[in-house]
Amino acid sequence: MIKKLLQYVGEYKKDSILTPIYIIGEAFMEILIPFVTASIIDKGIEAGDMSKVYQYGAIMLILAFLSLFFGIQAGKTAARASAGFASNLREGMYENIQTFSFSNIDKFSTAGLVTRMTTDVTNVQNAYQMIIRITVRAPLMLICSMIMCFVINVKLSLIFLCVLILLGFALGFIIKCAMPVFNEVFSKYDDLNASVQENVTGIRVVKAFVREDFENKKFGKASEVLYKMFVKAESYLAFNNPVMMVAIYGCMLSLSWLSAHYIVGGTMTTGNLTSLFSYVMGMMMSLMMISMIFVMLSMSTASAKRIAEVLNEKADITNPEKPVMEVKNGDIDFNNVNFAYKHGSGEETLENIDLHIHSGETIGIIGGTGSGKSSFVNLISRLYDVSAGSVCVGNVDVRKYDIEVLRDEVAVVLQKNVLFSGTILDNLRWGKADATEEECKEVCHQACADEFIDRFPDGYNTYIEQGGNNVSGGQKQRLCIARALLKKPKVLILDDSTSAVDTATDARIREAFATKIPGTTKIIISQRISSIQGADRILVLDDGKISGFASHEELLQTNIIYKDIYNVQMQAGGDFDEKMN
Ligand SMILES: Nc1ncnc2c1ncn2[C@@H]1O[C@H](COP(=O)(O)OP(=O)(O)OP(=O)(O)O)[C@@H](O)[C@H]1O
Ligand SMILES: [Mg+2]
What is the pTM (predicted TM-score) of this model? Predict the structure, then answer.
């Protein structure tokens, strides 16, 4: 996992290597400075020799400047390395997400993906910066300071060593308590993000159902849980400082007391005492940093794991080795197809589907909700792969095509279709990037979208808000149909795409299909008999199985389900919106 992530350091390797080098420089300067201080005191001040004071003072200044220089450089390179690493990670994840098939996407929640790309990447970024700076610096400072102490006075140093070990245990214990809580905090972040994401995207529905209070409470709960856990984790960490301080001042006191004896006895100098003070401080600080690194690392391993999951996720629908680059015609064949969303779960969404559709035919599909209509059509453009059997378009298995070629020729207007922020023209050109305005107008005419676009003051340059929130449901559907038509596909699939369009317009759109694109195979899913009764053949799906596949008249004679739906809709006087027109 670590290896996988480190690949993304990429062009920032140089900065990542330079940082520890600068840090080593900085640490050495900091270790030398107390040594020089001791010399100023002992050889200059105590001996009353001003020239020595200047001499050592100058050396100290140089060292201080060098340390500053290294420090600044290290800061710069570390920032570059970690921010660059994070941006590479984000790009890598984003690129991989784009290759995901529908079933890959089903595995991760949208909220989960967003957390992974934001919070988790930030965690890893911070940890990385910490690693290249402090994991080198802290142990180095600790060891060098210890050595210097031993050089100055072995007996006193032994005391520090004992205190240091005790302190190490204490800090370790604190971290051990805090770590599991931190790990849990991050899984809770997902819940919080899920709640936010769901509500913000569905805010209109929330308002319509006056669920604001409920949603506020739900969010409050998730937020409260997070708050409590953070407080718990942080309150463990809060012990770090007092423990440190006790250790530091304990050391100082014992140091002062003992060294007083040594200084009076003449075995130690005052300068040495001040150096010892600095080194002791340095050692304890380093130890504290090391303990913090552990917290940071454990926090970020959870994040790193979650990032690696996205990076390692292999798209399960990929191009074959030698893809077929041309779809010959709009023939569609389902050969004994079985399909389950979770492979091997035994819960087949579609069972034993075996049927053949000729190029240019218009096929209607009807069936209860959850009967597998969307699943059926999603197999044609290979949004999902079959579990058994095969689906062929133009007499070639869909798995043999180049995916882009196939999806260009099989245009689907999804049931949950979306528009993106941009003008109407921008949105239409998703279908064909280089389409002229004339072409766009032509398809809008076929989809009966021109009538309302012409009424917009900005016409085709009207700005569509994110998700298409500033156009009506029916308008959105017609734009989506136009977008699909622009591809001039060999197969056109409309998944309940005129449900929000009035029946008269619906009829006109079908009329346009029949006259303008006669060669295209059209598959129309609808809950309205009136939308599909004119189709050449109608497929009746029932619980993932074919219940009937014939013309309207034939089905009325032979298929009970179809007859029932027909009778219910006719008794209700047909479509109620039909009367209004
Ligand atoms: N992404 C998915 N992951 C798992 N199961 C799914 C998924 N999409 C649909 N299903 C299940 O597959 C079955 C068929 O769903 P499908 O969407 O094909 O029905 P449908 O006939 O299109 O219904 P509707 O008329 O409501 O659009 C349902 O039981 C549904 O719960
Ligand atoms: Mg559906």
Answer: 0.74
